[in-house]
Amino acid sequence: MIRVALDADLQAITDIYNEAVIAGGSTADLTACTLEQRRKWVEAHEPRHDFPVVVMENENGKVIGFGSLSRFHSRAGYDGVVELSYYITTSERHRGRGTEMVSSLIAKARKLGNRKVVAVIFAKNSGSVALVNHFGFTCYGVFPQACWDGRNFSDVSYWYLDL
Predict the structure, then answer these.
(1) What CA–CA distance (Å, rounded) separates 147 from 163?
(2) To pair with 154 at 20 to 30 A between CA atoms, which of 30, 75, 128, 142?
(3) C-alpha angle 103-16-8 in degrees, rounded to nearest 5
(4) CATH superfamily of 2-162
C-alpha cells in the first residue's frame, strides 16, 4: 500500500535513505542523514498536496520504501515539471516494489496536472535506468563524472516523461 507519509514514518524514511547513502551509487549524499535532516527534507515539499512524500508499506504494515514529487525548479516557468525520486529498502528490491512506487508517483503527477516528470539517476544504476525505460521515459542527457559518491565519480543521467 502506498500512502502519504506521516511524522511517524520519519525514522523509517531516514533508515531507508541511509541504506542508499551507505551503499553508494544512488544518491549524492556522502554521509548518513539525521532524523532532523530528513524531517526538513519532508517539510520542504510544500505545498504538500502539490509535492507529496509517500511511503510504501508491506503486507504487515511495515514501511519498506518512500518516494516523492519535488519542485523541479523554483522559477515559475518550470511550473508543471516535477522531479520523481524513490527508495526501496534493500530486502524488498527486485520484487516489483519500485515499479509500483514509480507507477503511483506518475499517476499522482498526472492527477496534479503536471506536464512532465523528470528523474535524475546515476547512469550505472541499471535497475533504475531499466525502470524509467519501462515507463517510457526519454534520456535527455548524461553529465559525465558529475557526482562523487564517496568512492568514485559517476555519470548522472537525466530522464523525462511527457504526461
Answers:
(1) 28
(2) 75
(3) 90
(4) Gcn5-related N-acetyltransferase (GNAT) (3.40.630.30)
